């Protein structure tokens, strides 16, 4: 047993971190926000970022090398998605990654693929539908079936746009009746149940990344900002806020890595719960550390808060996860 | 321990209710929130109606043109206007609740005559220039400086979180008239000025909040000349002058908000019942818990109002600092929980930025920060209410270099 | 409207505070604990305290003066019960108070009366049964009926003793079948529903008293105890713990007074919820402020923690209160 | 990121499991918890069995008589013994986990030969004399003083929270050999002594906790004479010597407890199912949330063990301070919630002081206090992990007189 990251895994993370620093730094993030606002969200995700990610193997990471992929596994994908979540890269990262090898162009980032999970009673939301080329559709009655694919335009015709609270996650809503009308034109060789589990890990990874970013931002601010003649980070109230943020982020990350390694449904549910809690609460606590400075549109903390309010792709409510974990105990 | 209103109080309520019933249907439709001149006109128009009906400056002393109402009457006024859906104080907020009371208490007779009547009649709008970007919670460390040049002060600096700056006629401004020296307390050397907003050198820039709105502005002051006669109180005595305003707080600051939150809570409960989320016991119990929270926050408001009414009657100035901090700590938490619960009830519609509950959820994020963070409030409660010792002063020690992630 | 205490109410509270300082101070409290331990709980409540309370009118407070009572109301009773809770006076205070005028000797403290509320499915606990003379019995099917009375010995015969976690609250358990066998020999001229509401106010009052006591004990300790060269109360972490304790105690007290004045069932449920939360959490936070010093048997904070773990007389679960308050919103 | 155990590790587990299966049924019944000599005999008897089977001092270095096992093997050992219901380390705790490792690392050859073998063989029992009533969380401010008199130290003072003092042969004692002077750090001037518990002047008084048990004792030292040769490390260097022990912590401190909590959690869930409280979704979801908590606490344990195994392999001493504080903050909370939830499930039986869950609920109250309060842990995380600046030193200012209630 050696739970730690391997050197290869560290290198993989480092490479993506470098790429994001070069191609999706703070300036690019704010430009994406401005563009999304100007065009009502149809501009996200930025196509150039998508292709750049495709080139690094972000989407094709788990495809066999023979199929043009990188041949790595879910733990490596979780590590990369954690970085993407830390940088708040916009777009249907999870769906496009899951579609690699099944939807042409997904692996290379030429295609933008989003996802519609109609497991529970509607309405159902789909993110980034305007920018998408294709949609993975998981219907309620096909839990064990293969996953189907629809053209984005076919879904768009039925969907109602929503002014999303998160400028970087445009949303549409569909009712159950809308969904039954969509023409499906392909399948993905994956079972819905497995795909949902992988989606849960990748979405949790992004939340863990955001939760970790919130710790770093809060700590940096607490060290620099002075009030009452001293850095605010020297006050226990601020210190202890930051310490609890770290605890949440570290626990959620540990749960995430365990779920990615074991692919166990219960550990996945645990990771999802803890990642959700860490992302939501850390973003709020980060705002509390920033105080009024964080309340402006220009501060980035709002983007993490708003992202944490967008439901995960294939996410179920925490209550359902908790019920499932309770059953595990019997 | 009497929660029943007196006959006099009930009569006041009935008269007010009758008047609201008559006047509210005659109001024009409310303006677009982005239309600042329209908002000013709407708000000052409402103030004019209040003035004509005898409700302007309800809680101001009579010798300042107010009605000298008791805190309980003020509570009833705020409760009834909120219930009836009357317009908010809006652009008249600073004039009626901050600058006006300050001038009434500390201004010269001439200053009172010049500035108070136009506030009551809805003719002039005030804004507040207290906060600064580098000061934050440490308000008294403000840096905007005013250099005396004969009969004027020359003011340079910047202010933040100013509401209605776009349409205000006057700004109640805190400036540093004597530079800070080592060892002197930072709230020394501050003066209170009434600055005309049309003076050369005043630049206003809208400040967009995370909620997307531009309720606030930044204000940049570049050698703005303010007559010395516009100073209220003595030079360098502005901190005390400002604190005087607080003695006008009678525990009524959040009456309208609590009434509104209770109404929203009922709406959320009914929405939950309609869309089935009510059947989730966790949702239902959180709603029940919130019912308890807002019920007691209403009672605490009554408690604080009773306490300040008593203090007024027996001694004069009432500063219910205890009650206010206790109230604010719990209220800001309850309000955030209310809108988080509303999001759960909204389900897939929760991320709809156009839904009023989502907008309120965003703006509620400021409640644990604005007007004294929860951390500052806890310090106030611990030190001023419980008498716990203050922290040592001095510079913190350096720590070891930080741990880096990965 | 003047929500504040009247001068008469202040005087009433002051008189009981003086009495308890003289007759049930810390030494008496610890003596009661020792006696309870030595005799397996049969020694509580101490009879002399009971009679002293009876003399002050604690039990007969709400009886008309013509019937030998004091002729005051529920708000005054709440204020006195708050003081009793602060001093942790042991015994079935609520039941004896409610039995005044109906059970001979209750008003004067000559009789010790406890209560058995069999509203929900069992088993049901009864406190202080060994020391009691009579038991008020509220059966499940008699919600609107008058309240019945049984001799304590009749209940004792059916009941199983429990080693109570709170040394000052000895407990017995009875099943529903046990209860149906008890011979009832009298009624109290009160409806069960009203009696339950009054019981809820009086029990909440004791919890509010305990919660307030915890604030005062924690603050005193925080001012005196020095660590790292300064009083621990000068550390923000301790300060903020104490501040939150005060907020809980003040909110619960406000809810209590409102419930006592209005006798409204919803405000009573709110008071019960907040008082329960304040007592339970303040006792824990007080222990946290005391640290290891509070973890010893000699420290009094344990007695407040343990009392907060004993269910209220006529108490229902918080969930039931919350459900009821939710219905209020519709 | 490999959570699979190696073949070698699995073989170690299988052998241990087989041995436990053979030896546990042969053990005598455990003694009454109040029978100290009986407990000592039982615990040391078990240690003797471990010694004979080659498991004594599993994680000690080989040159100290240990087995030099990896942290992962130690984790497996703790996991398997807990699962099998083997006796706890009990009276051997201080010897095996604190005093022994300290002597192994810092003692002279003679000291190692004198004290280590009897610990491993279960012949001598140690207790710990670190905490003092007036020191609390500020351990280094200890006051017990040792005055040198020729070849002996004369020790006077008092200690608290000492386990097994009643039956211990030796006490690892921290004393102040040089009085504190202004300006010198308080952890200077401290020495580490091995004190024989039968020395004249040692008085032990059982300390009853709020849980009613007497697991701990107070120890009063009145001019106790301890040979200078019993000092481990240099005079006045005892703080560093003590800290060395920490380098033996490999993230395994709570392995048994986490395994035990997960077992209890399953029992609580099954009890809830049996008595119907399971049908309350709030109870069920809390149980599910706790399943997630303890699942991740187990994974975090593995993470910390992996980190320290790596550090050992590459650099020698591993002090996983980060992981330990993060773990302890969350674990102490989760454990308290576990037993609060157990109380909800017990319903009317929750106040039964004889129910093991109620006893555990009481003792769990100490988890946020003992071995560094949660407040101290948060400071450690903030300053040592996150690099936030320390607080200023100095004396606090006086506050206004306290508010009085009523």
Question: How are the SSEs ordered, and which strands pair?
Answer:
The complex is a heterotetramer, with two copies of chain A (330 residues) and two copies of chain B (406 residues).
Chain A: H1 7-23, H2 26-38, H3 47-56, H4 74-87, H5 93-99, E1 113-117, E2 124-127, E3 134-138, E4 146-151, H6 152-156, E5 160-162, E6 171-174, H7 176-180, E7 187-191, H8 192-224, E8 226-227, E9 230-231, H9 236-262, H10 265-290, H11 301-308, H12 318-329
Parallel strand pairs in A: 1-3
Antiparallel strand pairs in A: 2-6, 3-4, 4-7, 5-6, 8-9
Helix pairs in contact in A: 1-4, 4-8, 4-9, 8-9, 8-10, 9-10, 10-11, 10-12
Chain B: H1 7-23, H2 36-53, H3 71-84, H4 93-106, H5 109-120, E1 126-129, E2 145-149, E3 152-163, E4 170-176, E5 190-196, E6 202-207, E7 216-227, E8 231-232, H6 238-246, H7 255-275, H8 281-314, H9 321-346, H10 356-364, H11 374-385
Task: Give a written overview of the molecule.
The complex is a heterotetramer, with 2 copies of chain A (330 residues) and 2 copies of chain B (406 residues). Helices cover 54% and strands 11% of the residues of chain A. In chain A, strand 8 and strand 9 form a beta hairpin. With 406 residues, chain B is of the alpha+beta class. The C terminus of chain B is likely disordered. Chain B starts with 6 loop residues before the first helix and ends in a 21-residue tail after the last helix. In chain B, a hairpin with a 2-residue loop joins strand 2 and strand 3. Chain B has a 4-stranded mixed beta sheet with strand order 1-4-5-8.
